[in-house]
């Protein structure tokens, strides 16, 4: 027989205590809140117990005896006035915002909607279509973390399912699951590339939007969060959330960090016409932003219907508690924040001193993890690249676009290219941040793959069912002479070379390199630059028996090995003229310093520069030629050796005559000058 009494209002969620299970949920304007307990199937409600109101708007209840694994949800009753933003409705079973585990599937139905007039959908009970919160007790993560410094970090961005769904050396039962990421075959591949850090697309529990499911599609990427604490159950092989801990521990033992792509800017409850699943039914006004004096109109800075109100103390606490949970309990090493500008915006706009940023800075758990911002959103003043404070790092889309435009052959790109490969000092140095603040990338999950960047001039998103109207139009891409798949050897060769050019630029730029999974395998999405809803071979990497022998895979290995031997790329500060150790020389084709007017020649589409490390007595000479004509290049005087030695090139051969070389069209070259010779992959 179950017993109950008033419980503690801290911590929020369900907590195992000596007497039983303590439940606490924040619903300050509710008139009553009930805890609903379900049988082990989740289909039958076996008890409904009224909770007790505490000071500050937290409702609590201690239930005993109650075992681990018990299923539950909440029902909050009170004023129901959608036009006033009040959505209390005892007919709607609500997920605990602090659920650490979920049981059952979410099913779309009319029963979830709460915005319709009383007497219609608002009176329908949605419990049958809702997953149930689950009482769990996980111990703190006890593994040893790699703690890779930013200076040595190489990020590999991948999707849990897509990375291994077709991997022939991984057991079928594990393919596409979290545990597959720690399988020896996958780890071996990461280690062989030199990857230090996995960045996983969203792994928080998420659901597919109804407009997708009606078309037979799903939200493959996962940017539609249902709960901020629970791992997405479809990624677990055994439905046991401890799998997540075990996977992290295995990756850590291999020396690989894990960063989570997290979505704290909106939730799956969407806008006014969206479902009531959790936060809406507990404290709609507090958890979501609404237009001043229009409480029924959600601010939509995300483009997804709602925006989390991070200014509210309990919304802020929810996010911070979630972050700490993933670090302390699950063991992750950091986070990449989707649409991060939203998290630092108040009613007056973006604020680099926002409470959220300041709280993380002083938090004893969060201040030491890796923090990466996607520094833009669609809200007012949403583009904030370079505005986040240290120790934040930021996705640098200006780097991406500049490198793409240069290698496509656009006019007048040279001055900006020099800034980007040198660490983007114009973006980060103004607030005492260094080049390692820049997360450099050519492609990511969002947009063309590296192979498609050189195969398509236009997006081909017809499979998404939106008449090819979705996806970004400014891709700065090229098709190398034929749109899409080609069997022409000349086009195939050029596409491979252009990918190598981009990769060489990426790994020999100052900043933190990020590679999108599949780039090393020539992975194509068929020209779809918004494959968020394609849970199929468009996104699943095509692993082959000869996977480790792929041309691009070998090339990346060589690039990483070369990068690791030059301290200029790990140096935490920008290189200036008064630097005693490092110097950078920008050169023209005569091997002489670039003249001011040459920087602004619109048709100058080649860049040559030399990085010198006086302490280690090493130098790199890097040549990029994006033009359609060869460039005769005179070598500068070798710095530490008798002559320049070719280290890497995107081409097969060149006319190299003593102190000069003919740099072939659309190619990149790296030469070394060292006192005792250099070794690389």
TrEMBL record:
Signal peptide: none annotated. GO terms for biological process: glycogen catabolic process. Its EC number is 3.2.1.-. It is an enzyme of class 3 (hydrolase). Residues 168-563 form the Glycosyl hydrolase family 13 catalytic domain. PANTHER family: GLYCOGEN DEBRANCHING ENZYME. Belongs to the glycosyl hydrolase 13 family. This is Glycogen operon protein GlgX. The gene is glgX.
